[in-house]
Amino acid sequence: MSSTTRLSRISVLMLPLQRSRQDLKRISYRTHLCKWVKMVISGVNRVKRVWLALSFAIVTWAGSPALDRARKLYSLTEFEQSLQIIQAIPDKDAAVYELIGRNRYGLAEFKKATEALEKAVAMDPGNSEYNLWLGRAYGRRAETSNPLSAPGHASKARQYFERAAQLNPRNLEAQSDLFEYYLEAPGFLGGGLDKASATAALMANLDSAEGHWALAKLAEKRKEFSRAEHHLRLAIDAAPHQVGRIVDLARLLTKQGRYQEADQTLARAERIAPNSPKLVFNKAEIYIKSKRNLDVARDLLRHYLSLTLSPEDPSRSDAEKLLKQIQGS
Description:
Order of helices and strands: EEHHHHHHHHHHHHHHHH
Structural class: mainly alpha
Strand content: under 5%
Largest sheet: 2 strands, antiparallel
Strand order of the largest sheet: 1-2
Number of strands: 2
Distance between the termini: 34 Å
Radius of gyration: 20 Å
Oligomer: single chain
Shape: globular
């Protein structure tokens, strides 16, 4: 999940949920590997939780292998097959509903994803990971819904991102998604550069490379491109084998029309991770956005569609959209 367990893509209103991140596992539509958080429960709540866990173990003991199979299918992006197995589990707990939500998310069924993830959060409200994924699902609803309902969905996304970060301040995925929301959302939806800057400082305390990435995004937002490049190069120095950092630099160089340097930067990333599906996709996307090397981009996307993908990778539908974009140009 560290990316595509890695939530890209900014809606007309505000919300980028699929961008390149700490490494190639984060260059995705945002599906990322996150840490699970244990909820501290006392008194009756603790007894109730233990009793529910024991009841589930007794009633659905045979369902545990089914959940394992469903997770395996999910990891192979076999979302429909995973759903068929997991929906047959008779007594569903928070983990089951969370996996249902992720599968729905992978199928771009974002309304159904929020419905399942809301059940997971209701059963385990102190789980940072569940809140994070519910925020991501609402973010995608904001991107894909009409202008009247999008602000409400975006506000819910922010609320769940904030809750995920509060529940576990060391959840770097939650801090990163919250940072991007603050960076891109307008003030009336709870965004703002001051909030983004404060979150970037928290990220820097957790991970130096991620902190420099956030500072680079802030600088770019302010059109301070030299400063943005400086922080991206520091991020690469801090994590030289995380090719996501290198791809971020290639994107920035491309935006400035420094194509030869961008291509050299991409070549450096290929030497580190030559068989990465995410790198194939992102190289094609960079070429398409700069309107160059379109024949190469077409071949890259066709190759990408033939690869075995994970949930952290950009979706096949995203690749197909880019391919249609080339063919229509």
